């Protein structure tokens, strides 16, 4: 195996590790993997097999798709959390009058 082929194998392994970290929520691990991936890519040099390079491109595209999906999921979660902060509880007294009870910041309301 040539040096370029060895480096491409390392790049593919690191891309796979990135996808695994994304799926498991190991966002701290992404930092470490990203640094290693950057080093591996900077060591990449000729000769590079075109077919092997296409495989790396496909792996990178799958990883990019997963990163975009994770970003969208986090954005949705942030939005949902923001919407839930403004929740209040509506109750009715013995005369049928409605009153709203808001939770103090950082507290939750529960029914007992």
Account of the 3D structure:
This protein is mostly helical and 112 residues long. The chain has one domain. It contains 3 helices and 2 strands; from the N terminus they run H-H-H-E-E. The longest helix is centred in the middle third of the chain and has 35 residues.
Summed up:
With 112 residues, this protein is mainly α.
What are the key terms here?
rod-shaped, 112 residues, mainly alpha, single chain
Q: Secondary structure elements and their pairing?
A:
Blueprint: H1 3-24, H2 27-42, H3 50-84, E1 88-92, E2 98-102
Antiparallel strand pairs: 1-2
Number of helices: 3
Mean pLDDT: 85
Helix percentage range: 55-70%
Q: What is the terminal separation in angstroms? A: 68 Å
Number of domains: 1
The secondary-structure class comes to: mainly alpha
Shape: rod-shaped
> What is the count of β-strands?
2
